[in-house]
Specification:
This protein is α+β, with helices and mostly antiparallel strands. Helices cover about 25% and strands about 35% of the residues. It is built from 6 helices and 12 strands. It has helices at about 1-5, 25-40, 50-55, 75-80, 85-90, 100-105, and strands spanning about 10-15, 45, 60-65, 70-75, 95, 110-115, 120, 125-135, 140-145, 150-155, 175, 185. The strands form 4 sheets. A 5-stranded antiparallel sheet has the order 7-11-8-9-10, with no helix packed on it. Strand 3 and strand 4 (about 70-75) form a beta hairpin. The radius of gyration is 20 Å and the shape is elongated.
Length: about 190
């Protein structure tokens, strides 16, 4: 890196530079690289297959599929408003709701995405059955089979509820809710 920077290039290509590092060192190096990039003022093209790393390291992200750019935008826009199903599925976990399920749940035709962390287990809303429960430490991931025919992933922070008894929800009926602003139509 130092040898490349000494020549003051206008663009520096970094191809999977953090790929072989463990998680803690990788996160530390992400901060170091971002600070270095700001200090030297050089454009970094950062190639990675790690979607979370792309979101944290980038001012802009290009998502490619078969050599074509599917979306080029700011990280938050790529994540919150994916242009199409490919981008929605490639960047993070996304629930795609389409067909009869979209009409029943949303009252709309088309394909929509709702991110797992935007969905809450609530007292009323779309009903379904908890198929799977995965305790992740700070959060719990649920796989819910909705009565409307869709299957949704829900990511709920454990600060919102006691995580000790979440396993007891497997096989139980629950209701899900989310804000309408969290639904985004994709092509």
């Amino acid at each position: 890196l130092a040898r490349a920077l000494v020549n003051r290039p206008s663009v520096l290509l970094l191809d999977e530079p953090l790929g072989a590092l463990d998680l803690k060192l990788r996160q530390q190096m992400q901060i170091e690289l971002k600070e270095l990039q700001r200090e030297v003022g050089i454009t970094f093209i950062f190639v990675t297959h790690d979607q979370e790393e792309a979101l944290t390291m980038s001012d802009r992200i290009a998502v490619f599929d078969r050599g074509r750019i599917q979306q080029l935008d700011k990280p938050a826009t790529i994540y919150e408003k994916p242009k199409n199903e490919f981008v929605a599925g490639f960047v993070g976990v996304s629930n795609l709701i389409s067909g009869a399920a979209a009409e029943k749940l949303l009252g709309k035709k088309g394909t929509f995405t709702v991110r797992p962390e935007k969905i809450r287990i609530a007292s009323k809303g779309a009903s379904g059955t908890v198929r799977e429960v995965e305790y992740l430490g700070p959060a719990t991931r649920f796989l819910i089979d909705l009565d409307a025919g869709a299957q949704l992933v829900v990511l709920q922070q454990n600060a919102e509820q006691s995580a000790i008894d979440v396993e007891s929800l497997r096989g139980k009926k629950v209701a899900l809710s989310w804000d309408k602003e969290s639904e985004y139509q994709v092509s």
